[in-house]
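Table S2 (text version). Query chain:
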Amino acid sequence: NLHKLGSGQWERAQRKAREQVRDAAAELLAIYAKRAARAGHAIPLPDDYSRFAASFPFEETPDQDRAIGDVLGDLAAEKPMDRVVCGDVGFG
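Corresponding structure-token output:
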């Protein structure tokens, strides 16, 4: 809706928008606090991984190397992984 600036309707709409933003921010903070407090499980790399990586017949791009390293680091950490990897051709 369009309201005349400075009108009562405009002030109420602004107040409602501020309240909704505050509520959404509080909800996000609560979600992230819960995530940060959760314990995860470190997953050690199996011996087979080194052999697999060494036998990979292609050369990884710098971005692929970074993504692989980031994911392996996440797996080794004792916190839940929070990552999405998209490897579609031409993506990014």
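Notes on Table S2: Residues 8-37 form the longest helix (30 residues). The helical segments are 8-37, 47-55, 62-76.
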